[in-house]
Amino acid sequence: MKNNIKSIFKKNNNIQNEIMNREKLIKTIRDNGFYGIETENNSDMNQIMIKSRKIDDIFKFAKENNINTIFFEYYYYDKEYFKIKIEEIEEEYPEEIINIVKNDIIKYNNKIDKIDFDTPIKLLVYCIYNGYSIVIEQKNEWGECYKESIVSGEEQMENILLKYQEKLEDYITEKEKQKEKELEGLKQVIFEDEQFQRSTNKELRYAYINNFFKQHPEYWQLFGEHGIGAYRWIETIWREYKERQKNK
Questions:
Q1: pLDDT of 38-48, one tens digit each?
Q2: Statement to judge: residues 161 and 220 lie in one domain
Q3: Order of strands, edge to edge, in the sheet holding 122-129?
């Protein structure tokens, strides 16, 4: 993160809002003899940006070219882009990992909630001339300040995971050890099963493992999503079983 996240939540009395508010802008447009129309997604149009930030300059251009309609568009940050979506995180990570990072997620989201996302970060005031948007742009320094200080919720989640990397690695290592222990126990159970011993070709072994999981669904999660890894595993332990039989 480029700056200390705490710094962006301190009130900065030096930040100036250059943008005219909507009510005043509509009145100013009307008082100058124009129709005012609010738009969306003007960024797709061909634009000519006027260096001036004074709205009166766009009025002057419009009057000189017999244009009677002034368009305007406000831009805002999307709060949801900056928040960590905890529901999605809970679906993606196991409960043990959620318990490690959840407090950090809540604290970060609470900080984002304190930001005034109803304040626009940019205003375009423009008219149409020969197929081009003749544009004056006003920016809010609020937007410029925050743009350099906060990141997307997705990136912040990566920062949190990095903070707890050692704990998470310990958790993963412990889970792998537990999985290996459970697989070893399962293997011994299967080796002693006469039906497995009679499964002398791949088709029989696949049928065997499918039937086994129907009777013991608690083992299914050891083999990943949809249990696909079980088919490779049953072939591996079959080879081990045959080697044991040879050495008896």
A1: 998 766 668 88
A2: no
A3: 35-38, 69-75, 122-129, 132-139, 47-49
